[in-house]
Amino acid sequence: MENQESSSSSSQQHWIIEQEILREKLITEDNFTWKLLSTQDKSEGSKEEEDEWLKYIGGVDISFSNDDSSMACGTLVVLDFNTLQVVYEDFSLVTLHVPYVPGFLAFREAPVLVEILDKMKRNGNPFYPQLLMVDGNGILHPRGFGLACHIGVVANLPTIGIGKNLHHLDDLNHTKVRELLGAKENSSKDFITLVGSSKRIWGAAMRSTQASIKPIYISSGHRISLQTAVKIVHMTCKYRVPEPVRQADIRSRDYIRKLEMNAKTK
DNA sequence: GCGACAG
DNA sequence: ATCTTGTCGC
């Protein structure tokens, strides 16, 4: 007979194997057809060829119900990169049976989010994102394969991981990052590269706004380099969290709230 | 052994 | 992730 301990550790073994298999397809360098200019300047008589410039950036997030903790709302938004306005949104209500286990977030959240993306692609929607920002880490992860990598590989889409808290790795923790960001030699920089005791580059900690002391954590998801990821995140930050993720978060919460309001009206 | 641990 | 208003400050 298996007790709960051994059965949960055996499913974690399966998860680890799946992460290792998917990781073989992971690309952590720039690999996309569109171009990115710091100014997005396309004035000089260039044709508006589709896919030439980065125009549509997606953001995904999941929010949860207070009434029923297993009920969740997966959300996808797409923003126009130049105006940062939302041009598309979609929601999917689901019941989640997989628990949250640190290091295995993707097995809880990726299926819903990939399905919403697939639906949009199947419909041939012209706003289908050229790049996706994910509420969760990329390679900043115990096995170098967080939620953003998982979604990126499965959906074959360039993705950037955005963490609002640090997942401790190597010798990296909140205190250490605060020390690094507060160090005099880094005082002028708005971000620092996260290199742990293993010498591996995990990602970057960035104070997105002057006012925000609490950093966000950026890492490559799939088909994008850290350098490019940091650049794009910086360009999409009106507040601490970049707009694609922030809008997905706000709208996802709204959707759940309205749903719970209707439930009480009965 | 104990604590830490994205969302 | 989620419960929550006001409040201090640029």
TrEMBL record:
UniProt-annotated location(s): Cytoplasm
Pfam families in the record: Endonuclease_5 (PF04493)
GO cellular component: cytoplasm; nucleolus
Gene Ontology biological process: DNA repair
Keywords: Cytoplasm, Endonuclease, Hydrolase, Nuclease
Example GO molecular function: RNA endonuclease activity producing 5'-phosphomonoesters, hydrolytic mechanism
Domain of life: Eukaryota
PANTHER family: ENDONUCLEASE V
Organism: Lupinus albus (White lupine)
Protein name, entry field: Putative deoxyribonuclease V
